[in-house]
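Q: Sequence in, structure out?
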Amino acid sequence: MTPPPAGTPKRILVVDDESDVTELLSFKLRREGYVVEAIENPLEIMGKAREFNPDLFILDIMMPELDGLKVCRMIRADRWLKAVPAIFLSAKGQIEDRIKGLELGADDYIAKPFEIKELLLRVSSIFKRMQQEAPVEQDQIEVSGVVLDASRYTVAVEGRPIELTATEFKLLRLLMERKNRVQSRENLLVNVWNYETNTETRTIDTHIRRLREKLGDKAVLIETVRGVGYRMNES
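A: Exactly. Output:
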């Protein structure tokens, strides 16, 4: 999903079972110029999201019947919503909880209680990043001697052609397009494997290993970020 054109009000869907939280967030976000919808029943989220077409989700984790983690899985599995960024709100602020949230595809994680100014800054930061990352048609991408040509479906390392499978090509292209930024395993499942239910995270690890083998000396460009995913660094 591409970010709205500059000047178009961004649309935010807030999901939290506490009415005081949804009311506060709705009020503060609207004051910043955002278009806001809020629901307190997480079971309504998919229908509301498809109807509202949000540019950002703000999800509470600790909700009855359907918690925020499960909601995030549903969003990331939906073809129309999977690219919409999400911020988790949670009373659980331990590092393990943050990692789990990021692994599921959240773009940010804020522990409760939180300062509303911090939340607004995080929201603004995500929208600025979306605008900067707006898709630009790029036939050729180069990262530290690795050149990927999408139009010709070729990859070369320091001028030496290498053969990649379709999945390896898609995986490398994603890492190169998002160089220097960590890609969680969940994010890779969504964008490379389209979140096929029979795909396991170790499948990603296997493809990364094979991709590194084919990159040879340039394998070091792909960094393992322990507990989260992978990042391709520009040397």
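Confidence is low (pLDDT under 50) at residues 1-6.
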